[in-house]
């Protein structure tokens, strides 16, 4: 999945499922989102390398929900293609992924 429209649709679906309580992100999902959100807090755009690095170094990356993992890997691939990543559809898709990361980063750990 690296077509901007697919990434946007999947990010929007996960946002909706999270908001409606249909998807309960696990602690690994949240920790991954927090790690990526720290990159966003710098004010710099998210990069494919940042996503891959976070997934490679996350303590529990193996426990990240499959849909979220697939979405993040697809987003990394999208961001690697500079020509596509600069287009309005790709920017919209990445904005939706960032909104999802924001929502997950602010959610509570299930153990709390």
Structure, described:
It contains six helices and no strands. The protein is mostly helical. Helix 1 packs antiparallel against helix 4, helix 1 runs parallel beside helix 6 and helix 2 packs antiparallel against helix 3. The mean pLDDT is about 90.
Which features would summarize this protein structure in a list?
112 residues; 6 helices; mainly alpha; globular
The major sheet is characterized as:
none
Work out the helix count: 6
The end-to-end distance, rounded to whole angstroms, is 33 Å
Radius of gyration: 13 Å
Total tally of structural domains: 1
State the helical fraction.
55-70%
Structural class: mainly alpha
Query: Could you state the order of secondary-structure elements as H and E?
Result: HHHHHH
Integer average pLDDT: 90
Number of strands: 0
Proportion of beta-strand residues: under 5%
Low-confidence stretches: none
Shape: globular
List the helices and strands and how they pair.
Blueprint: H1 4-19, H2 27-40, H3 48-57, H4 66-80, H5 82-85, H6 88-106
Helix pairs in contact: 1-4, 1-6, 2-3, 2-6, 3-4, 4-6
Give a quick rundown of the structure.
The protein starts with a helix and ends in a 6-residue tail after the last helix.
């Amino acid at each position: 999945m690296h077509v901007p429209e697919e990434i946007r649709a999947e990010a929007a679906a996960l946002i909706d499922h999270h908001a409606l309580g249909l998807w309960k992100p696990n602690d690994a999902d949240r920790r991954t989102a927090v790690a990526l959100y720290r990159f966003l807090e710098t004010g710099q755009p998210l990069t494919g390398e940042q996503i891959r690095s976070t997934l490679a170094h996350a303590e529990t990356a193996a426990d990240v929900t499959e849909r979220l993992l697939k979405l993040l890997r697809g987003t990394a691939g999208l961001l690697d293609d500079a020509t596509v990543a600069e287009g309005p559809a790709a920017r919209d898709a990445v904005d939706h992924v960032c909104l999802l990361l924001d929502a997950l980063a602010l959610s509570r750990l299930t153990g709390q």
